[in-house]
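Example complex used in Figure S2.
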Amino acid sequence: MNNWKFLAGMIVFGSLWGFSECIIGPLFSDLGLPSGMIMTGFFALTFMIMSRRLYPHYGMQAGMGLIAGSLRMINPFGGCHLCSALAIMAEGLLFELIFYGTTTLDFKNLNTWINKIGLGIFSTYSIYVGGYIITQILTPLTFGQFYVSNLIAMMPQYLARGLPVAFIGAVTVPIALSVKEINFSLKDSYYYPTTLGLSAFCWIFVIANWIIYAA
Amino acid sequence: MEEFIRKPMNPKGNRTIIPLLAMAVLIIGSVSTLYVHANQSIQSVNGDTIIINNHSFELNTIFDTYSNISIETDIGEKTGIPLSEILLSSYIDCASCNSYVFIAEDGYQQTVEWDDIQQGILTLEKRTYFPHLAHAFWVRDIIEIEVKENE
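Predicted assembly (366 residues):
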């Protein structure tokens, strides 16, 4: 796989992740569901694992996080967009670090269900809690108002919030890892228009959504 | 762009470290959940009062005393009482010399300065809105506003 294909893949998966955070996430919030937990536990982890399986190269998910976070940053709906954008970027980076430490690029060491479920629990919990803590540091820092005392006081709450997400990950990650061999091959003449067209759709939809609501 | 397939962390032979890591986070998450719930039930005994600068105030009294204003936020118009008015009548000597810690029922807390307070409101649902700050500063279910003297 060449660098351009890798980049196009990163853009399309990052855009899909950002699109789901901007458009689907607020729908869960409106229904009174914990959208942050669902978005990380289900959408983010599914996109990142599927992309890791399709494009087995380091750096893919960190790049996806940057793209998804950028898309979230320009969408002012559904809670704190700066906090969410920073959390998404952190989640991509944490995924890279965790999966670098615990698995191989081809996931061959995850040969048992215990390992798959275990990785689901550990990675989802760490990514969600880690992303949450990072955003709770960086957001106040952006406004020059970060206090370590607040972070320490809230730490039990951050650690507790990850528990339901870990259970979502215990289901999502093994399923995403167990889906039979992903064979996704397109000729170059179709590959680039498809990936870039899908990415453009995500960005245009989110921006149009923002313009319509702002008007 | 070929990368070598590296070996993951294996503490012993072919056994991976993953189940141990999973158990560790489950224990951390469970203990934290128990701690948060225990703490929450202690703090939420007086649901109709709010502690400001170590003095307890009835929420209804606060809202009967001060008049509501509306402010524009990025999620629409919000109505509440100016935080500056509440704090100025809460036995505070030098308002601009302090930081203000908003503590929620579940332990969430954020600290803001007097300049921020002047733009913020408290709603009847015990929620603060600061239109110029990120939503992370908008604390809900407030039980206490702690006043901390700036050093």
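The radius of gyration of chain A is 17 Å. Residues 112 and 118 of chain A are 10 Å apart (CA to CA).
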